[in-house]
Specification:
The structure holds 3 protein chains of 3 kinds. By secondary structure, chain A is mostly helical. Helices cover about 70% and strands about 0% of the residues of chain A. Among the domains of chain A are: about 240-495, no CATH class; about 505-580, no CATH class. Chain B is mainly α. In chain B, a hairpin with a 5-residue loop joins strand 1 and strand 2. Classes of the chains: A mainly alpha, B mainly alpha, C mainly alpha. Strand 3 of chain A pairs antiparallel with strand 3 of chain B, so a sheet runs across the interface.
């Protein structure tokens, strides 16, 4: 690896490759770029020196550091690069310049933001992720996706401008934009940045852009989206707000409330969007705890989540690709036509449910242990409740209603080979990092050795008899509950419909209010103008009557109104200067 | 291509390896649209009385796991978690609660599919072979006046 | 560095007279154009004249930057001030002169394709003559040191602008009422200004700006000074399209020939704003009590109102040119907000935004002018799908649009950042929120156009390309790339703005 490559941010490479891909008409070349760029990126990251500012630049007195690898962001960057590679393979059957290029640039900007060494750089790439990612939704080409993407963009940009606001605060009060953790939210700018991150992490009540946009994205777009934005926010929290106790409760609520929505939601990709919320909640909660074990858990879980959530989105994407729908009430029995997809989906489902030998088990148990050791019983119970909830919506509902359950009679082809390949690779990784270390340094130990606190990680044992038994009990009894409720006919059937969520506020109430104000304004505006005009015309008529023959200057369009304004401003200026001298 | 690999001539007259032939057969759906791997991987789900079997298997497994608590001592940070069958009970209750809440919540929050206007059909990049796939929808949408 | 080379290589007479030559060259060439037999010849002559002015402006900038005092004082006809007319250029004027001549030069290059399409051929000579007069007037305003002489130049530029706007009647009859409105309002502004100068003359007995400034401290509390001040502020505010005195602007920009729109948007309001800054900071002093009150209670609220209200209005426009015009008023609001802080960094952020705004609005209107050549009408609907038929024009448009929004790595971002710092330093964090909010609105109005351009199918699909001619694309891309370049390395405009602020407020203001 040449030196200049070793000190180049791999995210930049992906962004450049993405921009080039936007203009490459030859499909093979474009796809080669999309696959080779992340591979080179992984090599670049592997050889990068840790703890050094590789690319620095100074403008307007701000020191920018574009590439800084350390133990906290290494794993995020690696996961993003792997996700970019899998996404590129998953998209091989398509031929869409915009989508290929933007997906690569989106991944690249997320990586570049991860390795940013200062707030301003983080902000710049933060905004680029917003802009590039919107194409994943926009390319779906339906009117619904267009409006959803505009709402999405608005919210993402709002997050960006809030972040910029916060940065301005920090800059003003500290004169230093390096990435130092905030000790509490009362520090200048901390709260604004907290909210900006919170939007991207889809905090409760700020979450709805996710459920709104992801299910309306393209087949491949949803897979791409699932990997980056929320996990980038998790990284940002881990970087700037570790041990911030507010996060514990926010995270706990975040794990629980999507569970209820996921149960009644009919669109399986939307169920996965809620599931994303729920998983990010675990990470946020762990960051709030802030102990080395908890932070290890958060980072490891983010890594695992990128893989299994990507895998689940891929399998639902394959279903959508072949059947044209992901509505649970229209699906069922697809294992007959898509057995491989079914198998991979099941691997993802079991992984996310934290079954021993699968990835989430080794990562989530760190989070649960760390929360338990704080002694916050209620939070811990909430997380356990949410673990059962994950099993419900991601572990059982997704595969059951898509591939088993009531046979919809749909007979389609198996997913294209490239989709199966990507799913297979993701499934392999899900299992690989969940296995016990049969060989030293393999299995979960490989993941643990890359965590921010490797020494603490090495001393943590996920595969104790107690852990395994507890987890198996939880899962087995929950599955038993499912079987029981099914037999009793108490499981709510899948019905088509839209589930109201907080987006109702701006999609119905807000939109309605805006329309109402518009109508009122349309009526009130002329009325006010008319009143003003009658008043001024009356005065004006008198003047005309006195000084000039009527009608000479009667046509008062713009000039008339503005003359009045000019006089008003003159009066104000005179008044001000008289009063103050 | 080595000589050891026996080759056959298929109907269209191309040479393919025997192995490739098998893989091909295993990845080609039959006339009823059923993938051959489906039988191998998930054939068991079609067995008769599978529902009842699964029920009793899960019930048995659950019982065994709860009883295992008597033998295995778990180290727990939170004291009541070490009581027998705690995780099982909590998992069972949580799961049932979530599922049963689906009834009232569904009634409360579920609206017609076109509540926010036309949902707009599938995205543009689904399988082009699908019948009537990329529909350009012209329904009323929330952005329309 | 380039400036130094320029200074070394310049002949002696050019160095001695550069200040006055900036407005004089176009002023002399203009009547020649009116008589020119060939339209093409007139165009070439106009390029030559603006290029000469640009050269002298650069030379002036070089002299200002290299001289110790940073001030060039040129006595017209060797009559020393305060009796004679003085041309007085410091870092502030030099910056404005650079903007005006630079944009004038770029405008005159692309004038040919645009003018030939919108003005009947026999009138082109006259049209370009009016353009050069306007250009000369603006340069004059930006270089003179005499209050009354400033009025004269202001009127030269205004009168020729009315003509230029009215020439749009060939394309759209509504240009005539727009020009008429502009005439009435412009005259009103100019009259207010001259009334104010009259009051000051009555109080001080002099018309030379430096001389007025020297005499004012002794006249504290003098009513006629205050009245004069009020009239001048309102008069110049009207010319600078300060909200709510902006109402002449949207129509004038929307209906005049597209070439004129581009030139005016990039220069005219800027020059009036310059005059406002000159009066507020050099002649009157910010430490006058009534000026502080004016900043806080009049200019800042008006600036904020402009950037919020006009951004809203821009969102609801259907015509791209009107939308950009409202956006211009909003951007003037940013500049006035910066100036109204009364601090050195505030003024410097206002000036930086002034510079950057000239770049982005110049590029935006130039791209629109390029579209006008091929497409009838400038509503957003007409722009649908142009990303495919005119990719180069529209990409430049997009770059400038992003700069207008204030996307990082563009010039607009730098100046908004600067403004944000200035507001923070002043403790007006709420104003930062409003700036951010109005940038947020800019996302919508620009985004609406970009969405139509790049993601909608063309309204009336036709095979032939609608790309603008090379004569337009070259200056357009110069501006677009400048938007990016100055977004990455802002040291040149930031330095100009800083020096300008220092010149306006005095050096100690930065301590």
């Amino acid at each position: 690896m040449p030196a200049y490559l070793a000190s180049l941010n791999p995210g930049w490479l992906l962004i450049v490759a993405g921009v080039i891909a936007l203009f490459v008409k030859v499909r093979v070349v474009r796809q080669a770029i999309s696959i080779i760029a992340p591979v080179i990126g992984i090599l670049m990251l592997a050889t990068a020196q840790h703890g050094v500012d590789h690319m620095t630049y100074e403008t307007l007195g701000i020191k920018l550091s574009f590439y800084r690898v350390d133990s906290l962001n290494f794993l995020f960057g690696l996961a993003f690069l792997i996700a970019a590679l899998l996404n590129a393979i998953y998209a091989l059957h398509t031929d869409n310049k915009t989508q290929d290029g933007m997906a690569l640039a989106y991944a690249g900007s997320a990586i570049a933001a991860t390795f940013a060494g200062d707030l301003m750089t983080l902000f710049i790439f933060w905004e680029i992720t917003a802009i590039t990612s919107v194409f994943m939704v926009l390319q779906a080409g339906t009117r619904a996706s267009y409006f959803a993407s505009m709402r999405y963009l608005g919210i993402q940009i709002l997050s960006g401008v809030l972040l910029l606001d916060g940065i301005a605060y920090v800059w003003h009060y500290q004169g230093d934009l390096s990435l130092q953790a905030f000790s509490d939210l009362n520090q200048p700018g901390a709260l604004i940045i907290f909210i900006a991150f919170g939007i991207k992490a889809a905090f409760p009540f700020l979450h709805n852009w996710l459920q709104d946009a992801y299910p309306k994205a393209t087949v491949t777009g949803a897979v791409v989206l699932s990997a980056f934005t929320t996990k980038l926010a998790v990284y940002a929290f881990a970087r700037l707000f570790p041990g911030q106790h507010e996060l514990i409760w926010i995270g706990a609520v975040m794990t629980c409330f999507p569970v209820f929505f996921a149960v009644i939601e009919n669109d399986l990709r939307k169920v996965l969007a809620y599931s994303t919320n729920n998983q990010v909640g675990f990470m946020i909660c762990a960051i709030g705890v802030g102990t080395p074990l908890a932070l290890n858990g958060a980072v490891a879980h983010a890594f695992a989540d990128i893989l299994f959530k990507g895998l689940l989105f891929m399998s639902m994407g394959a279903v959508l690709y072949r059947t044209g729908t992901t509505k649970a009430n229209e699906l069922g029995g697809l294992y007959r036509s898509m057995p491989w997809t079914t198998l991979f989906c099941l691997v993802g489902a079991i992984s996310i449910s934290a079954m021993p030998l699968f990835s989430a088990f080794v990562t989530k148990s760190m989070i649960l242990s760390s929360v338990a050791s704080t002694g916050m019983v209620v939070v811990w119970l909430m997380l356990m409740f949410a673990s059962a909830g994950v099993l419900e919506h991601s572990g059982i509902k997704i595969p059951y209603f898509a591939f088993f359950g009531h046979d919809s009679g749909k007979r389609v082809k198996e997913a294209p080979f490239n989709m199966l390949l990507a799913m297979g690779m993701a499934a392999f990784l899900c299992i690989a990092i969940g296995l016990p270390a049969f060989l030293p340094g393999f299995g979960y130990e490989w993941l643990y050795s890359l965590l921010p606190y490797p020494i603490e990680a090495a001393s943590y044992q996920p595969f104790t008899l107690g852990h395994i038994l507890a987890q198996l009990q939880l899962l087995a009894l929950a599955v038993f509950a499912f079987v029981l409720l099914q037999r009793l006919g108490l499981y709510p059937p899948e019905k088509p419909g839209v589930i109201l969520d907080t987006d109702w506020l701006y999609r119905k109430a807000g939109y309605g209010t805006a329309r109402w104000i518009d109508t009122v304004w349309a009526k009130l505006g002329p009325a006010m103008t008319a009143t003003f005009r009658t008043l001024s015309e009356r005065a004006y008529d008198r003047l005309v009557d006195t000084f000039s023959p009527r009608g000479v200057l009667a046509r008062n369009g713009v000039s008339g109104g503005m003359a009045v304004w000019t006089t008003v401003i003159l009066g104000v200026v005179l008044l001000v200067s008289y009063l103050t001298s | 291509m080595t000589d050891e690999t026996p080759t056959v001539r298929d109907s269209s007259g191309r040479f393919v390896k025997q192995a490739a032939e098998t893989v091909n057969a295993m990845s080609r759906t039959n006339d009823e649209g059923i993938h051959p791997m489906a039988k191998v991987l998930f054939g068991w789900t079609e067995a008769k009385g599978i529902g009842a079997t699964l029920f009793w298997v899960m019930a048995g497994l659950s019982l065994v796991l709860v009883l295992a608590d008597l033998v295995i001592h778990r180290h727990e940070e939170i004291h009541f978690a070490s009581s027998i069958g705690f995780y099982g009970l909590w998992g069972f209750l949580s799961f049932s609660f979530v599922v049963l809440m689906g009834w009232p919540l569904g009634r409360l929050l579920r609206r017609d599919e076109d509540y926010y206007g036309d949902a707009g059909g599938p995205p543009a990049d689904i399988d082009p072979d699908l019948d009537g796939a990329p529909l350009a929808s012209h329904g009323k949408h929330e952005g329309d006046h | 560095m380039i400036l130094e080379t320029l200074l070394v290589s310049a002949p002696d007479w050019a160095i001695r007279h550069s200040t006055v030559l900036i407005p004089i060259v176009p002023l002399i060439v203009a009547p020649v154009l009116a008589m020119s037999p060939s339209a093409r010849l007139a165009w070439v002559a106009s390029i030559a004249a603006t290029a000469a002015s640009l050269y002298f402006a650069l030379l002036t900038l070089a002299i200002v930057q290299s001289s110790t005092g940073g001030v060039i004082s040129y006595h017209v006809g060797n009559w020393p001030p305060p009796i004679g007319i003085e041309f007085r250029v410091d870092a502030l004027n030099a910056m404005i002169l650079l903007i005006v001549t630079g944009m004038g030069f770029l405008a005159s290059i692309f004038a040919w394709p645009s003018v030939i399409a919108e003005i009947s051929r026999p009138k082109i000579g006259l049209f370009l003559c009016a353009f050069l007069l306007c250009f000369a007037g603006l340069c004059g305003v930006a270089s003179t040191g005499d209050a009354f002489n400033l009025f004269v130049f202001l009127e030269i530029s205004s009168l020729s602008t009315y003509v230029l706007v009215a020439m749009g009647a060939g394309r759209d009859r509504r240009a005539l009422p727009a020009a008429f409105d502009y005439l009435i309002m412009g005259t009103l502004g100019a009259s207010f200004y001259i009334i104010g100068v009259g009051f000051l003359y009555a109080a001080t007995g002099t018309l030379n700006m430096a001389d007025i400034a020297a005499q004012l401290p002794a006249l504290a509390g003098n009513r006629s000074v205050q009245v004069g001040f009020a009239f001048i502020i309102v008069g110049l505010g009207l010319k600078a399209a300060m909200w709510p005195l902006h109402q002449w602007l949207p129509n004038a920009y929307a209906y005049s020939p597209s070439f004129v729109t581009m030139f005016l948007a990039a220069t005219a309001t800027k020059v009036a704003l310059y005059a406002l800054i000159r009066w507020l900071f050099t002649i009157f002093q910010p430490d006058f009590a009534f000026e502080q009150a004016l900043f806080t209670w009049v200019l800042a609220p008006l600036g904020i109102a402009a950037m919020v209200i006009c951004s809203f209005q821009a969102v609801f426009q259907t015509d791209v040119r009107r939308m950009l015009a409202y956006s211009s008023v909003a951007q003037v609001g940013y500049m006035i907000l910066g100036v109204s802080l009364g601090t050195a960094i505030g003024v410097s952020s206002g000036l930086l935004h002034l510079f950057n705004h000239a770049l982005m609005k110049g590029a935006l209107f130039m791209a629109v002018a390029g579209i006008c050549l091929n497409v009838q009408g400038t509503t957003i609907r007409d722009f649908a799908g142009l990303g495919r038929t005119a990719p180069f024009t529209m990409t430049a448009f997009a770059i400038a649009g992003l700069s207008l929004i204030g996307v990082p790595l563009t010039a607009g971002f730098i100046s908004k950042l600067q403004l944000g710092y200035a507001l923070f330093e002043h403790g007006w964090w709420w104003a930062v929120l409003l700036v951010v909010f109005s940038s947020f609105l800019a996302v919508f109005y620009i985004g609406r156009v970009l969405q139509a351009v790049f993601f909608q199918a063309p309204a009336n699909p036709s095979k032939h390309r609608k790309e603008a001619p090379l004569l337009l694309l070259v200056p357009l891309w110069v501006l677009a790339l400048a938007n990016i370049y100055f977004g990455i390395d802002a040291s040149f405009p930031a330095g100009l703005a800083r020096d300008g602020a220092v010149a306006a407020l005095g050096l100690e203001a930065f301590r």
